[in-house]
Write a structure and sequence with these properties.
six-stranded mixed β-sheet, 3 helices, about 30% strand
């Protein structure tokens, strides 16, 4: 049944069906008490349980003060299908949120909360800082937290747990690399590695040659002051060599076993098998030479280029048959030794003994005269 009326000079069509459903601008669909074909405006609000909109219909809110209300102090905007109420945006005390807080809920689980103080929580209902992320319990070798990606294969994680269950704060790039890892429990930082292995700072070198740097320290001008290479070489800037020091200087040694740097002890308690030197005649068999050092390439191999400075010293291969203790060796993995140089500091005491013997001979000759 239809009834046509006029609003002023504008015709208004109102239709009803057998169930007393009303249609404005067209016949009622039979599914709702009121069907409006066309546009409509409600100046004092809509009260009821459901407002159903078609796929192409939008709600336009005014620019001054438009609201979706759910009560005087609490409310929720549900985005659901099939009548479920487990998805939506909640305000106030609904869905166990704190007063004046907003929460985003999916599958009946709160995913995000904004408190009345402006703190944002993801995975936590009580964020204590501006952004508080709680990953929950992680399985071993699992990643979660915050991820930043530029494509599917390249991304960065900010939380992880390793295969042993140790928690880390890691920047993981998705390519099985760990540029930075922070150890749990107040412990250290790893760069280029998944663990700091008990160190306060652990740096795992990169590059594909032994001469690649694993750590470099530059000043604010970009000048390298110190470089640590994969092959164990340590390089400093020429400025360091040019710096002069005064007073209280000490010689720095490298220990052969652990390769530790430090001063060397000469107190009696540090020594055993102490014996007086009786014969230093081997000194007179050594062959001092002059030479120029060769330069090395980036892989540590000697080239035909030389340094300009003229040097004086001994040849290790010539010295070993005469005084092998003066020669330094590296021990290879198979236990064999590789000759690398001369330890000139070991010459000081034998030369002191030779000077004493020569002085005794001079004194004896002077007494005869």
């Amino acid at each position: 049944m239809g009834l046509t009326q006029k609003l002023g000079t504008i015709p208004l069509a109102i239709f009803t069906d057998a169930s007393n459903n009303i249609g404005i601008g067209g016949s009622p669909s039979g599914s709702f008490k009121l069907d409006v074909t066309g546009t409509g405006r409600f100046t004092s609000g809509i009260t009821g349980a459901n407002l159903s909109l078609s796929d192409t219909v939008a709600i336009t809110l005014s620019a001054t003060d438009s609201r979706v209300l759910g009560g005087s102090s609490t409310g929720r905007l549900l985005l659901a299908n099939s009548g479920t109420s487990t998805y939506g945006i909640f305000y106030g005390a609904s869905h166990a949120t704190a007063p004046n807080a907003i929460s985003l809920v999916t599958d009946n689980t709160e995913r995000l909360r904004i408190t009345n103080t402006g703190n944002v929580g993801i995975g936590t209902s009580s964020p204590s800082v501006l952004l508080d992320i709680n990953t929950g319990a992680l399985a071993n070798n699992a990643y979660n937290g915050m991820r930043i990606a530029d494509d599917v294969a390249h991304y960065w994680f900010l939380a992880r747990k390793d295969g042993s269950g140790n928690r880390r704060m890691a920047i993981y790039n998705g390519q099985n690399n760990y540029p930075v890892t922070l150890q749990e429990g107040g412990g250290g930082v790893a760069i280029g590695a998944v663990s700091n292995y008990g160190r306060t700072l652990y740096v795992l070198g990169g590059g594909n040659t032994s001469a690649s740097n694993c750590a470099t320290f530059d000043n604010s001008s970009g000048t390298t002051l110190l470089s640590l290479r994969n092959d164990g070489a340590i390089f400093t800037n020429a400025f360091t060599y040019g710096n002069t020091v005064s007073g209280g200087t000490r010689t720095v040694y490298m220990e052969g076993g652990y390769y530790a740097l430090g001063g060397i002890s000469s107190i009696r308690a540090s020594k055993k098998n102490i014996e007086n030197i009786s014969n230093v005649d081997w000194l007179y068999q050594l062959n001092p030479v002059s030479f120029n050092y060769r330069k090395k390439d980036e892989n540590g191999n000697y080239t035909d280029e030389i340094y300009d400075d003229l040097e004086y010293g001994l040849i290790a291969e010539d010295t070993a048959p005469i005084a092998d203790f003066l020669v330094n060796y590296n021990i290879n993995e198979d236990g064999t030794k590789k000759m690398i140089g001369i330890e000139y500091m070991r010459l000081i005491t034998p030369m002191l003994k030779a000077i004493q013997e020569l002085n005794a001979k001079v004194s004896a000759l002077e007494n005869k005269s």
